[in-house]
Each structure stands twice: as structure tokens, then as C-alpha cells.
């Protein structure tokens, strides 16, 4: 505990928290005061954090002298459909306990299925009560605005006394993290009859990505596609990463991703034989005028139907093989012997006890990036943080594996590589970057997830109504261009010709969803209009007013649209060089507009690995027994994510997970 600061010890009722924290809240200002217990609380607002199922759960309670006047239950990091939606309901249960909060604990009835989340809320709420009663010091939340800027994101490895270790388990190969990489590696190991164990801090495996990139798979070649120009592909990634990528690691994906695909295909054949895999080939896979654009686009995307969840399938494979998956078991630290070889980990069971897991052949870290750790985001990627408005990352991606590897001497990629998509829709006047809630937490301001229309190369303007770049490019290019603009945000402008325009634009990857169903996208646009995040008007003047342009900025906006129409008529963008087929006129009402910044999916800056998925130390030497895959590994993507290679991140993740098993178990030297 630390001394209370003025910010933490608020003397007024908390207001407006639910809107900015995206968490459950319930206003209880009308509660009956406990007359017989006058003066039992010190008026103010108190917060406490306890570990939930997937993440930390935060409870903030405001007290008068005699009663609770407000409660906020923040379960934003919990599992969707289980703990995430519990915030408001649990706040209601706390209301019902108003008369019994002078006891020695809090017990909530009707916990439904989110037991771990409810238990965390009980503990945190009681700590708030204890603070208000003066029984314990006021707790300072580590994510406060003042402290987050200067905090050491890495910290030190926790000390765990031998006497605190309640159990020792053994396995040949340990996988830390039940995401797409961890589950793929574990499933491959199980299919080979290896003794493998998985630990995961959440209550279940992570969300499955049903598409991935693989080079020259048997299914792509069977369509008649020519083999990939591998030299051109290598040059493309080198250019995109400014020469900073580890090309030997890149070769592992190029050379072995087809085998990864074959393994997954065989798994589907056994567990979901009716599942359909569709490779993106032919005209659908080609960016028009690709050569003129200067980009190289490999044919590599594979998408599976949803007959079975792939990670569910992998879990069945692991468990059918008699191997263990321990959920609600977060990693605490990695252990090494005197020779420097990684021997296993210390983890924590659901009941809070520590366990040691010995891994004879090796440990694979598959714990994800750090997009949900504000301290790491601000310290390691200030640029990406500053242009981001929306975060759709997996809530448990808080950099745990990266920190654990750094504590034992693993080297980390020096430069950031966020996966930014141009889809973070926000209301007018909202800047990109973190916002500090009234409880001291840092959140990105968007209240929506990905808004797919944002990736279409329509006219983009800044807050002064001025066009500032060529709008045609990969997903990350517009948000980065907006770094030099007011508020680090920009507006997208188009007219009723959108359905025809997007066919001509022919964007690739997931942005093609707009092209495949523009009518649905307009329906989604209307939903955003109702929420005040998007605008539709019969005239450009009306649109300018709705979007917040006034005075000189409005005049500039209207002149910019007129200039853009002129460029379209001439079929030549002499201002910024955008290809003619990606120009569009803005003349046919209704007119559409919305503001946006970047939407972050994950980070790709992690522990440096070689082509065998082995972790490296600062001297460039292999850390024996430690393997890393996926978003917590580094050296593959640098600066950003090359969105012109659909599915490459997921393809790389699973290819390296399988590679780690092969190397650790002696299949490959």
C-alpha cells in the first residue's frame, strides 16, 4: 500500500464512469441511509483490484457517512458472454447488501456462471468497504495517470519462497498460453504422442482466427496458381520493415507454412470432415495495378468455415491424448538451472497456490503481445499509442510472457510493431491516444470495435478540412499519416456512389467485406449515425456542419471536396499521386462522413527468436530450452504489420509453434 494521493481520495460522487470505462455501472444514489450506523464511513471514493478469470477486476465505490452512493464494477477484461457482462448485475447485487456491509466479508448470491469474476468482485468490494471504514490504508491503483507515465513496465521477477510451492508437476514440453499458437503447438505435439502440458491464465482458450497465410500450399497450387515469387516476397517484407526484419526467420514461414497448413487440414479431415477451406486466389487475390502501386501481394490466404472452432478442435486433440490443459493458471516466472537452461516455470493455481512445472524438453511461450497493458504501450510504442482510438485486442494480452522472458535475460526487439487498422471510429472532437477515466485507468476513447468502411480509400481530411495524403495504402498507413494532423484523427468522406466505388477500389484482406456486402455496411453506417459517431446529409454544407466544421475550416472542407472532384474528373491525382481507379467523385446525395483513428488488434514486438523459434539473449546466443511464438516473439515484423500479406501473422504464429515442438522434441536438429 502507498500513501493516498489527492486524486485517489476523491471527495465527491463519481460520475460518468460507465461511458468512458466500458464497464458495468449502477447508480445507487437513492439508497436509504443507515441511520443506526451514522458515521461508519469516511466520505469519498475508493477503488480496489482483484484477479478475475481473464484479467484484473476493478471495483470503485463512493460513500457518504452512512451509505454507498455509487458503484462501478469494471469487468472489461473478462470473458465475453461470461464475466464481461457481469458488471452491472454485480453492482445490483452489491446494492442488495447495503445493510450488511458492516460485516467481515461480502458474499453475493446468484453468481450464475461467472464464479471467478464474482469472487473477484466480492473481494475488491470488501476492500473498498474496509478503506471507507478506515480499517486498511487507502489503496492506490497502479494504473493511475500520474504513475503510468513513469512506471517501470518491466519491474522485477517476483520472489517465490520454496515453502510457498504447493505442488510440482512434470512434462516433456510445456506450452504457456492457449491462444492460436499455443493450441496449434500443443495439438501437433499431442498428435505425435509427445507428453505436452498447457497452462493458460484465462478460463478457456483465446478467440480463434479462422484464416491464416501459407505459401504455396497444396490447395493454392491445385487452383492453378503459379508458385510464389519468393525473392519478390522477401524483398517486399525487407522494404516494409526498412531492412530490420530477421530474414532467416521469415524464411521459416515461407518454407514451412505449407506443411503447417497440411497439418491443420488433416486435423479438420478427422474432426470436421464437412468443413470447407477457401483459398483466396485469382482476381480476388490481386490488388489492381499492384505493380504500379509498388507493392507485392502473395497469394497466401486460407479461410475455414465455422463447422468447428479450430481451437476447440485442438483442445480435443490434446485432451484425447491424455495431456493436461490447466486453465486459470497464470505464469509467474521462468526457471533456469545453473547451466542457464530453462527447466520450467512457476505458475499460480486458481486457489492462489504456487506450482512448479518442470519441462524436460522445453518451454514454449505463446502468451500474446501487450496491447492491453497501457504502461508497456506508452513506453514501447508512443507513436502507435498516440494515433489509436480503438482497442479490440484479446483482454489477457498484457505482455506477461515478454516480461518473464526478459527477467531471465532474453533480448527484445528494440522497435515497436503494432497491428493497426484504419477502423477506429469516434465522435467529432475526440482525440486519439489514451484517455484517463475518473477512476484513473487509461483507455482508448472509441466505444465501438472495428468499423470496416474505414479501410476504403475515400477522401480523407483533417480537422481543418484539408486533405493531407494519398488515401490508398495498407491499413496502417492512414493512421500514421494522421500523426501529423490535429488530434491525430481524420475524417472519411463519400457519397451515394459508395457501393460502386468500392468494387473499383478492390481492397484485399478483411477490408473486402465492404466490397462483398456494401448494403450491409450502409446499414452499419446508419447504426453509427444513431449513436452520433457518423453523419449523413443531403448537402455538403449540412454534412460539414454535422461533422463539426465551422468558419474557415468549413470553407476549406468545401473547397477540398471541390478540388477532389476536379481530380476525379481529370483522372489524375496531381496533389498526392493516388491511382486514378481509387479516386471517387463526391456529388451524389446523400453524403457520408465520420471521424476515426487507428484500431489496434495486437502488438508484434516481442522476444527475439531465431529461425527455430528459440529465444535469444542480448549476446545473440540461444537460451537453451526456451521457445517463443506468435505476438510475444520479435524480429519478424518491425515498424508495423505488412497488411499486404493476408493472414501472415496467424500463419507465422502457428508455423513457429509447430517448429518449436519439432526442435524441442528432436524431430529437427
Notes on the structure:
The structure is a single chain. This protein has 669 residues and is α+β, with helices and mostly antiparallel strands. 30% of the residues lie in helices and 20% in strands. It contains 20 helices and 25 strands. Strands 5, 6, 10, 11, 12, 13, 23 and 24 form an 8-stranded mixed β-sheet that branches. A hairpin with a 5-residue loop joins strand 23 and strand 24. It is globular. Residues 1-38, 79-84 and 142-150 have low confidence and may be disordered.
Quick overview of this protein structure:
This protein has 669 residues and is α+β, with helices and mostly antiparallel strands.
Q: What percent of residues are in strands?
A: 15-25%
Largest sheet: 8 strands, mixed
Mean pLDDT: 87
Q: Determine the N-to-C terminus distance.
A: 50 Å
Which structural traits does this protein have?
20 helices; 669 residues; disordered N terminus; alpha+beta; six-stranded mixed sheet
Task: Present the secondary structure layout.
Layout: H1 17-21, E1 24-27, E2 44-51, E3 56-63, E4 68-74, H2 87-96, H3 115-132, H4 145-148, E5 165-176, H5 180-191, E6 196-199, E7 211-213, H6 218-221, H7 230-240, H8 247-271, E8 277-279, H9 290-293, E9 301-304, H10 310-320, E10 324-326, E11 331-336, E12 342-348, E13 354-365, H11 374-380, H12 382-386, E14 388-391, H13 400-407, E15 418-426, E16 435-436, E17 442-443, E18 459-461, H14 477-481, E19 490-494, H15 498-505, H16 512-516, H17 518-531, E20 534-537, H18 540-546, H19 551-570, E21 591-603, E22 607-608, E23 614-616, E24 622-628, E25 633-634, H20 648-664
Parallel strand pairs: 5-6, 5-13, 6-10, 13-24, 14-21, 22-25
Antiparallel strand pairs: 1-4, 2-3, 3-4, 7-9, 8-9, 11-12, 12-13, 15-21, 16-17, 18-19, 19-21, 20-21, 23-24
Helix pairs in contact: 5-10, 5-20, 8-20
